[in-house]
Design goal:
The protein has helices spanning 13-23, 80-112, 119-126, 128-134, 138-144, and strands at 2-3, 6-7, 29-37, 40-56, 60-74, 146-155. Helix 1 (13-23) packs across helix 2 and helix 3 crosses helix 4. The strands form two sheets. It has a four-stranded mixed β-sheet. The protein starts with a strand and ends in a 12-residue tail after the last strand. Strand 4 (40-56) and strand 5 form a beta hairpin. 40% of the residues lie in helices and 33% in strands. By secondary structure, it is α+β, with helices and mostly antiparallel strands.
Length: 167
């Protein structure tokens, strides 16, 4: 990551994957959802995703993530899809995506302090007058900018959820 012409830090593969979910569209990717405990994990494959970054008053940013997924695998003998249902797994996935995005945004704001997500660009595009006021102090403002994240996850094409070990 660069701020101006200075290297200020690096992002890991996992961090970059999360960043890409809300800054661009993702076609084929995976993420893991804990289904109640670390012993029950479900892996989802993102087939397609889109996102939007919208400036709001305050200044504040609202991010909306929309992802179409398939259930890839479970690490437990319990059938999570059967016990929670598709809606339950979707809700867990939505909260996981929101929590991961919030965590990564906060880390970039506090540790790096550079707007790698393009929030300033979105403000300047959608509200040029506001951007004129914010631009001189954007480095300070970015570090404390409020960011709201919402997600919609839709799971389909996951096959029939047979009880494990029975067909």
């Amino acid at each position: 990551m660069f701020r101006g012409d200075r290297l200020v830090g690096y992002r890991s593969e996992d961090q970059t994957r999360t960043d890409m979910l809300f800054t661009s569209s993702v076609h084929e990717g995976q993420f893991v959802v804990e289904a109640g405990s670390a012993a029950k994990r479900v892996s989802l494959t993102i087939r397609n995703s889109s996102s939007s970054i919208l400036p709001a008053a305050g200044p504040r940013i609202s991010i909306s993530i929309d992802a179409d997924c398939t259930l890839d695998e479970e690490n437990t003998s319990a059938n999570v899809l059967l016990s929670l249902g598709t809606d339950g797994v979707e809700r867990l996935a939505q909260s996981t995506l929101c929590a991961n995005a919030q965590k990564e945004i906060r880390a970039v704001q506090t540790e790096l302090g550079c707007d790698i997500f393009g929030f300033g660009r979105e403000i300047s595009r959608k509200d040029p007058e506001l951007w004129k006021k914010l631009k001189p102090r954007w480095g300070e403002i970015f570090r404390t900018l409020k960011v709201d994240v919402s997600a919609r996850v839709h799971i389909d094409n996951s096959g029939y959820a047979y009880p494990k070990g029975k067909r």
